[in-house]
Fold this sequence. Notes:
The protein is mostly helical. It has one domain (2-107). 82% of the residues lie in helices and 0% in strands. It is built from 4 helices and no strands. The protein has helices at 2-18, 25-53, 56-79, 84-107. The two termini are 26 Å apart. The relative contact order is 0.20. The mean pLDDT is 86.
Amino acid sequence: xxxxxxxxxxxxxxxxxxxxxxxxxxxxxxxxxxxxxxxxxxxxxxxxxxxxxxxxxxxxxxxxxxxxxxxxxxxxxxxxxxxxxxxxxxxxxxxxxxxxxxxxxxxxxxxxxx
Length: 114
């Protein structure tokens, strides 16, 4: 669950960066850095998860995350106007949200005992 939320925060930051229309170059650079760090963190987590539990596990986790993002986007389209203001809010929440979720997914990664 935490990885799906982490993934959603990073997704909305990427979406905001792709559609960035702000006048502040600094804000765009900070958003770019956050996106890069979020993507890198996600890749590191999936690789580490795969090394610990086998490679099917991160593929399954990635698939669940992808499907959950599709569900969230579908609900957003059905129930909201998907305004850019909503995307910006989710993107800004991502500055705190994805690092917290990343901490949780790394902290609760199962240990393999042989």
